[in-house]
């Protein structure tokens, strides 16, 4: 099975992580990437559940591929990319302002770090709205 | 996720192991509130056994730290390693909090 489609709810991100790990293993991606994959998948699935489907009741679809970076044709080396699709409200996680990670504790808001972690842990990522669908692609360099 | 608490002198040592994520963070919140309710004001959170943390876990840790500081207490962290250390670093938590290599060093501080 190369595509997973399940209801998007925050407590089901483990299933997506497991699927992405199995695809990564099948595509010969090193185990050292597992924790980063888990983190990026968790943040993205939780975001979809919260913002694309604030009232619940929608699916998320997941697909993985290995190859050259589809987001940057000039980049050299191989990449493993995770692509998530949903059919909820238009939501571009990359649009928000970056958090100030140098602020003192009393000035920091509780939350808002998920997308920052996605940016930090991936080598490239892209959001696209295609008709009624959100599509987010997160890529990791593997060689 | 599993949590084990231990009194070490003036410090309450809270060892957190496993995964601190969107599913388990509410359990951490509950356990930390119990630590505060028991009137502990100096807490070492040892993360040596923690293998994974996401933004949901960071949110719980920041909320816990804000609560304890509001009450005039102190919170420090120990045993950060691997991806947990990396997540603390890129989110600015490593610079914001006092970190020790081991729980023993933290309770001796």
TrEMBL record, chain B:
PROSITE patterns linked to this entry: STAS
Signal peptide extent: none
SUPFAM superfamilies xrefs: SpoIIaa-like
Single annotated GO MF: anti-sigma factor antagonist activity
CDD domains reported for this sequence: STAS_anti-anti-sigma_factors
Transmembrane regions listed in the UniProt entry: none
Domain STAS, residue spans: 1-109
NCBIfam families noted in UniProt: ant_ant_sig (TIGR00377)
Family per similarity comment: Belongs to the anti-sigma-factor antagonist family.
Protein name (Swiss-Prot/TrEMBL): Anti-sigma factor antagonist
Protein source organism: Pseudodesulfovibrio senegalensis
């Amino acid at each position: 099975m190369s595509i997973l489609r399940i209801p998007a709810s925050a407590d089901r991100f483990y299933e997506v992580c497991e699927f992405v790990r199995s695809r990564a293993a099948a595509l010969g991606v090193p185990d050292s990437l597992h924790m980063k994959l888990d983190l990026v998948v968790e943040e993205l699935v939780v975001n979809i559940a919260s913002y694309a489907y604030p009232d619940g009741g929608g699916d998320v679809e997941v697909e993985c591929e290995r190859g050259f970076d589809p987001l940057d044709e000039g980049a050299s080396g191989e990449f493993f990319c995770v692509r998530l699709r949903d059919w909820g409200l238009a939501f571009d996680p990359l649009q928000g302002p970056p958090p100030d990670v140098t602020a003192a504790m009393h000035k920091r808001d509780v939350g808002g770090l998920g997308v920052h972690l996605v940016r930090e842990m991936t080598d490239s990522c892209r959001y696209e709205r295609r008709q009624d669908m959100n599509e987010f692609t997160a890529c990791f360099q593997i060689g | 996720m599993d949590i084990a608490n231990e009194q070490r002198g003036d410090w309450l040592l809270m060892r957190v192991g496993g995964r601190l994520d969107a599913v388990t963070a509410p359990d951490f919140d509950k356990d930390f509130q119990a630590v505060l309710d028991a009137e502990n004001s100096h807490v070492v959170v040892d993360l040596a056994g923690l293998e994974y943390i996401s933004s949901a876990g960071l949110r719980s840790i920041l909320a816990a730290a804000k609560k304890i500081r509001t009450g005039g207490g102190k919170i420090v962290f120990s045993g950060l390693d691997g991806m947990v250390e990396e997540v603390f670093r890129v989110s600015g938590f490593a610079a914001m909090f006092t970190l020790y290599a081991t729980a023993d060093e933290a309770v001796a501080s």
